[in-house]
Fold:
Amino acid sequence: MPAELACFDQQCGARFPITEVIYSCPRCGSLLEAVYPKPETPAAEWKQLWRNRRLSNAPLEQSGVWRYREFLPFLSDYSHVVTLREGNTPLLDAPRAARFGGLDHLSFKHQGFNPTGSFKDNGMTCGVAQALRLGLSRVACVSTGNTSASMAAYASAAGLEPLIFLPHGNISFGKLAQALEYGARTLQVEANFDQILALVRQLAEQLGIYLLNSVNPFRIEGQKTIMLELMDQRDWSVPDWVVLPGGNLGNTSAFGKAFREMKEWGLIDRLPRLAVIQATGAAPFYHLMQSQDRSRLIAVEHPETLATAIKIGDPVSWPKALAEVTASSGVVEMVTEQEIADAKAVIGQCGIGCEPASAATLAGIRKLVSAGSMGASDEVVAVLTGNVLKDPTYTYEYHTRKLLSRDNTPIESNLANEPVLVPYDLSRITTLLDT
Ligand code: F0G
Structure:
């Protein structure tokens, strides 16, 4: 049985060829996922194979995605792959952040070390490979910034035409600059992310453009490798918790699927609990988990947060995310703008740094530990989704006490590190540094 696309709704259960250009089930409208037959190979052999490949100079083996290609076998031939050596992101110990969060120990899986500075690269190399295989020349996405930066880079590297739709005035300059630099045709639309996504889905169908948002199941396949690489780095020892920020919920879906499949393959013996953290002004998934009726997500019409990466009110992947969080006995938490800002500064003080959305993880950990949901001695891995340089305006404004939330409420700069203006004068600088 080859790789197939399957409807995520178990009751529908429809299956389609892997090369069909669809983003939702044509029968029932649900999300799709790639499915494969379970291999016979013993888990120990996979582990050895993937570890050995790290020694190779071949581009495919140097990629932290394609090194694990047997775990996402949707391609029949790898000549279409364009790799920028994505993945290979470090797992960093952060004692200071652990103390802030109330944990004995905490490590960060830092996806900001990717070629375009975010976790999107893991999925994008797969989405672009599928576009090439299908012979499609134009690709599109709507984005809060990181998906567009990543798609622009991978599409251009592959000789495709990238077309990007952005919510005007709501993405950081670091991300917008990347899209422009990588040569994407960039349209800034006067609407929010959720509205533009609905429009782009229609456009993609009408114009035959390949859609590379996270509704694209091949993006999800690539993002699975973030967790596979994590387990490889931990010598396959499962942590108690994996904590991540939640926006459109593609990553939550990918991580859940990765752990489920790792367990099916015998690579791990239990699932870690997923903890998904949202910003209070854009927390529809948190509210869904709190409600009695989980059959329908109530969208936040006007999502608000300075963590623009996760400023999403109607996350498309919520049914998958709900299933994965439930299967892992996970939790969903929300954190305030102030909590995100301070947690971000603490991650900076660790010498690590990240963009605002990523810092929601540490803020969430602090809240979950103080509520007793997470134990101080639990083994916790938090995923930092984007690089500190993605949003320098936010960081500068925090440290210079100018950060305002969207309704103009000031954010306290509790850990501000202000630059000091000094005259060109040796004795005055000496006096300043002596005190
Ligand atoms: N963190 C960062 C830095 C992101 O860019 C995103 C999503 C998320 C977290 C949330 O991940 O959507 O899978 O739940 N950014 C998308 C974009 C929406 O367009 O770049 P998610």
